[in-house]
Amino acid sequence: xxxxxxxxxxxxxxxxxxxxxxxxxxxxxxxxxxxxxxxxxxxxxxxxxxxxxxxxxxxxxxxxxxxxxxxxxxxxxxxxxxxxxxxxxxxxxxxxxxxxxxxxxxxxxxxxxxxxxxxxxxxxxxxxxxxxxxxxxxxxxxxxxxxxxxxxxxxxxxxxxxxxxxxxxxxxxxxxxxxxxxxxxxxxxxxxxxxxxxxxxxxxxxxxxxxxxxxxxxxxxxxxxxxxxxxxxxxxxxxxxxxxxxxxxxxxxxxxxxxxxxxxxxxxxxxxxxxxxxxxxxxxxxxxxxxxxxxxxxxxx
Amino acid sequence: xxxxxxxxxxxxxxxxxxxxxxxxxxxxxxxxxxxxxxxxxxxxxxxxxxxxxxxxxxxxxxxxxxxxxxxxxxxxxxxxxxxxxxxxxxxxxxxxxxxxxxxxxxxxxxxxxxxxxxxxxxxxxxxxxxxxxxxxxxxxxxxxxxxxxxxxxxxxxxxxxxxxxxxxxxxxxxxxxxxxxxxxxxxxxxxxxxxxxxxxxxxxxxxxxxxxxxxxxxxxxxxxxxxxxxxxxxxxxxxxxxxxxxxxxxxxxxxxxxxxxxxxxxxxxxxxxxxxxxxxxxxxxxxxxxxxxxxxxxxxxxxxxxxxxxxxxxxxxxxxxxxxxxxxxxxxxxxxxxxxxxxxxxxxxxxxxxxxxxxxxxxxxxxxxxxxxxxxxxxxxxxxxxxxxxxxxxxxxxxxxxxxxxxxxxxxxxxxxxxxxxxxxxxxxxxxxxxxxxxxxxxxxxxxxxxxxxxxxxxxxxxxxxxxxxx
Lengths: 301, 471
Fold this sequence. Notes:
The structure holds 2 protein chains of 2 kinds.
Chain A: H1 2-40, H2 59-66, H3 68-100, H4 106-113, H5 115-118, H6 121-132, H7 138-145, H8 159-187, H9 191-199, H10 204-232, H11 236-241, H12 253-263, H13 267-291
Chain B: H1 23-37, H2 39-55, E1 64-68, H3 74-90, E2 94-98, H4 105-117, E3 125-129, H5 133-138, H6 157-162, E4 164-165, E5 168-169, E6 172-178, E7 180-184, H7 195-207, E8 214-217, H8 224-236, H9 253-267, H10 281-289, E9 293-298, H11 302-306, E10 318-321, E11 336-345, H12 352-362, H13 365-375, H14 388-393, H15 398-406, E12 408-409, H16 417-432, H17 438-455, H18 458-469
Helix pairs in contact in B: 2-4, 3-13, 8-9, 8-16, 16-17
């Protein structure tokens, strides 16, 4: 009995100690989320006050489900996320492996690699837009000189070619970040494992496949979570580069939501969209953590 | 006023406290550069500061305080300040404070909507873009002007139509913007009488030795500018977006032909470069100003820069005329998209009568003329086009300017214009980049606009409004 009450006492102290932190979380995370959800159950069009602000239940969600533009936007977002993250992971892994080697000027290289990551996204997007924009742009000039293109092309008026600068810009900008995360993971791997493997006659490929990659799994997971969530929320890059065009064929869900919420000032519908995006990204994060069977702390034995 | 997006958008913090005393000037400039860094932070700051600023004007006993918000940058700012000062001298007991709002149209719109939702009475006079009036009127955010007996007949009819909702006039046109056809007179001496002639002229000029690369340049990116261009081709073929009965007619054969004509310029007659599908006003201006195009569709604003030999290769070699009609469409007529600014009374102001007085003063012939002389903006009163003083203020022949404004057509006059426009922008762009056929695009646009009309309960309002505003 005494033990239990002491535990209860400790627990109470524990709770009271974390209470301020919990209050802050409730205030900055849960409260806005709840508010957004409540708003999403209403019709609230700032531009059309004559409609009032009635409770409409799930009507906004039904409108989303019926809207082909939303589903297309979801498809674009998934496409963008999968393609750019795959490229970033592969290239990032190569970079990380290279930077993990001991060579002169390693510190400098590590810092230099981060430069694209340090540039604000909007600035980077403007740069890439400039490169691809006009028929006399740098991309066209290079490709025509190299004989790959017969004549300059207008990149932003076809869906397939409009994706090129978008994905390139994202890969260029974010690969360093991926590489850095993976590098941190690499540095946690005990070097003696490689020595032992080498003594046993394992070649470099075998070492990569059976030592590096499995032990890098936690780092890869963290990277994937970060990047998938970023990818699903992609906004500024596409806003600047294509504006979602041609038509709406490169429009991601975040841009569609921005449009409903801030351009058309449809607060109810826009809130419903925000809740849907939140649910998707949250679900994805859970899926990663469960599916890959790795604890984020990397403490598995 | 789409072009305002290019003005470099200098933003000011509308905090009246910053405006007092010489030391505050420096402070304000610091705030300016800070705010310019972040568009969204700026909007937030304004949204927060608005209601605060609203409480700021303190009135002495018996003094009426109005706040005016309008384009107030550079020469325009000086002019507005001058005219406001004169108004105060003429009306002792009324003080007008200038409340800064962003020059970018969509940012200003967003702020207004937020303030008006919060029932803020300032600014007491709102500067509205031509397509906003019905929205603000239907929302009850601006007051009808009819009880003041505004001199409707003294303005261009199209500018009055654009400001009329459900039979009532809600704003007075302050200055007008119209779509114009710019032409290289050294290559095409005579104004083309039809759209078809324009294309043939362009082809002939392009095929000349050393002729320009492009035949005609316009604004084809997916934004409001695309609609203004489309409205002109649409009128040229006798089509409309919404007819007098409030029916959506944007998928009728005339409209399909208009869109096909635009598309043919890109892929068949090859007079317009595919680049225009990503262009706004400024890209078109650069192409024309550098001598790379035979024709250009644009607003009046580039005339000044292009007449300057220091920066323009076409100074003295271009002329401006209204967009022609199609020669193949009997019901077609020369059409210009109408832009420009209007002045309206905030429904929540405490001083509507004084506010109307100020609007009447600013839209009076003398002030309009002064405005044209200072910043080259077109008056909305036809009578001024017989005034010799306007001739030197506007760089193009007055007759051409007046013809263009007389052929001006408002974009659909409806409170749901912005969303209607978004639907149309997307579908037009899809057709022009050849994702879908013009007929299919316009059918889809019509279906979606009809769904929008249903969703917003506009069906009844619009047919009612059409009946009441019919002459």
